UniProtKB/TrEMBL annotation:
Protein name: Major facilitator superfamily (MFS) profile domain-containing protein
Residue spans crossing the bilayer: 65-86, 106-124, 136-153, 165-188, 195-212, 224-244, 327-352, 372-394, 415-436, 442-469
Keyword Magnesium: no
PANTHER family, A to Z: MAJOR FACILITATOR SUPERFAMILY, TRANSPORTER, PUTATIVE-RELATED
Record-linked Gene3D superfamilies: MFS general substrate transporter like domains
Membrane topology classification: Multi-pass membrane protein
InterPro entries documented for this protein: MFS (IPR011701), MFS_dom (IPR020846), MFS_trans_sf (IPR036259)
Residues of the Major facilitator superfamily (MFS) profile domain: 68-514
Compartments where found: Membrane
GO molecular function terms listed in the Swiss-Prot or TrEMBL record: transmembrane transporter activity
GO cellular component: plasma membrane
Pfam families: MFS_1
Keywords from the UniProt entry: Glycoprotein, Membrane, Transmembrane, Transmembrane helix
Length: 514
């Protein structure tokens, strides 16, 4: 009743916006005389969503220098934690011989890490919301540092397996926190490219790790590889400590109002304010003019560099909800689809990682561990192409569709940009699976197979997860948590499938596997 009465008291424009908008729909232009904060570089462009505050320390108001510094440090954390965690595929024959273990036992070293990378996010996301992004990342970086030392000094299979468990726990933050940080500091129309940068960092670590580990093992020893990872993680801790301020916005930090509109808009006595579910109308008596020049010129405060931040007591009271929200939202059709899309793309890469060493080491290829690692340069090239195209391309497609829709943006407008990358996924998997089984020349298997898998593994998760975040912006962390759990649950089961290379099955097995 109160809802209907409040709608009836709105202006005609207010009633239309209030009733017709669904979660994820955003007004990217001015309507009804109400004016919003725009990008200062282009006042005629889309409206900034969410609207920034008048606080120069608001992460949305930070200069591009500080935003870039945050993303770079976060990206280095992702790469530095992924490389030691997911890079032992070329070392499989070495571990099998050194510890006299089966292929399944050695595959468990990756499987247990992959499992923890997903499920630990049930704790990482509440920690980010309650204690802040900064302290959560620093603790995880310290765990990674200790895990690298442990892996470098392990003298038995059991000890190395325990070190891998610690590595998976510490590295789990890279699965979700960067997307939360992107949502903290960037506006809606910018997020595609920066979500893409996260997936690029993640998969670059996944691509480069086997290259480095295989080469180091052949030239020196696999233990030196983990000592090098220890040094890289130590440098990253220093970077996070001095150049990664807190990006969390506490819930009592209200957005600034829209900029004063036309006379007609003032007479309507209403202003539009964006929210995740609908467009609200607020009285103009609550509106203050923002300080000029704040947007794009702010910087972090000294308090935002503190180790311990103010506890979000609202999030603390909702800690149980943070644990159960990822499982609950998994059954939302949009989130379910995005999780499956991300899981399918990522596990195509995992299948390539698991099979590249036994497949390419066998006749007629007879690759050494270093050569198996170098084959991953094709994945790197594909990943670079995916990064360069996916985020900006999806933002471009979405903005063009928004313009055709008279400034009303729907999250589904982004999905058309998936088409070329789905085609790339099909071509890459067929080239690798059928080509490896059929003993095709290595350029076809590696350049086309590895390369196209590298393209799709960055592009498809970037677009699908950005779409889900567009729809449910306030729970971006929970979306990444459940998508990661879905992806990694698939992944941990792959090492337990019988290897099509060593199982002695017929030639159709590998083709069906892919």
């Amino acid at each position: 009743m109160e809802r209907a009465e409040s709608i009836s008291n709105l202006t005609p424009v207010g009633r239309e916006a209030e009733v017709d908008l669904v979660p994820g729909t955003e007004i990217m232009t001015e309507i009804g005389g109400a004016r919003f904060y725009h990008n200062e570089d282009n006042p005629d462009s889309v409206v900034l969503i969410p609207q920034p505050t008048d606080d120069p320390h608001d992460p949305l108001n930070w200069s591009m220098f500080w935003k870039t510094l945050v993303i770079v440090n976060q990206g280095i954390f992702v790469i530095a934690s992924v490389i030691p965690a997911l890079s032992i595929a070329p070392l499989t024959p070495v571990f099998m011989q050194q510890w006299e273990k089966s292929l399944t036992d050695v595959a468990l070293l990756t499987g247990v890490t992959v499992l923890l990378l997903g499920y630990c996010n049930f704790f990482i996301i509440p920690s980010c919301e309650i204690f802040g992004r900064r302290i959560t990342l620093l603790v995880c970086a310290l765990l990674n540092f200790g895990a690298c030392i442990w892996q470098a000094t392990a003298t038995s299979y059991g000890s190395f397996l325990a070190a891998r468990i610690l590595a998976g726990t510490g590295a789990s933050a890279n699965e979700s926190v960067m997307n939360v940080v992107v949502t903290d500091i960037f506006f809606l129309h910018e997020r595609g490219r920066y979500v893409g940068s996260y997936f690029w960092c993640y998969f670059m670590g996944l691509f480069l790790g086997p290259i480095i580990s295989g080469a180091v093992q052949e030239k020196v020893s696999w233990r030196i590889f983990f000592w090098a990872c220890t040094g890289a993680q130590g440098l990253n801790i220093i970077g996070l400590l001095f150049f990664f301020p807190e990006t969390r916005r506490l819930r009592n930090q209200d957005p600034i109002p829209a900029v004063q509109g036309s006379e007609q808009g003032n007479n309507d006595n209403a202003k539009l304010e964006m929210s995740s579910g609908h467009v609200e109308f607020v009285s103009s008596t609550h509106i203050q003019s923002p300080q000029p020049g704040i947007l794009g010129s702010g910087k972090p405060s000294r308090a935002q560099f503190g180790i311990f931040q103010a506890i979000d007591r609202t999030a603390w009271r909702s800690v149980v909800r943070h644990f159960f929200t990822p499982a609950y939202i998994f059954f939302f059709p949009i989130i379910f689809w995005a999780s499956m899309s991300m899981g399918s793309a990522a596990n195509a890469l995992l299948a390539v990682n698991l099979l590249q060493s036994p497949g390419l080491a066998a006749p007629p290829y007879n690759f050494t561990p270093a050569q198996v690692g170098y084959a991953n340069f094709a994945l790197v090239g594909g990943g670079v192409l995916g990064l360069a195209v996916a985020g900006p391309w999806s933002d471009y497609v979405s903005q063009k569709a928004t313009a055709r829709n008279k400034g009303i943006r729907e999250p589904e407008m982004r999905l058309w940009s998936l088409t070329p990358f789905i085609a790339a996924a099909i071509v890459g998997l067929v080239a690798f699976g059928v080509g490896l089984q059929g003993k095709w020349p290595w350029p076809a298997v590696i350049i086309i197979g590895f390369g196209f898998v590298g393209v799709q593994v960055v592009a498809i998760p970037t677009i699908s997860i950005t779409y889900a975040i567009d729809c449910y912006r306030p729970i971006s962390g929970e979306i990444m948590a459940i998508a990661t759990v879905c992806k990694n649950t698939f992944g941990v089961s792959k090492p337990n499938f019988p290897s099509p290379i060593h199982s002695g099955t017929d030639a159709m097995y590998l083709r069906n596997y892919f």
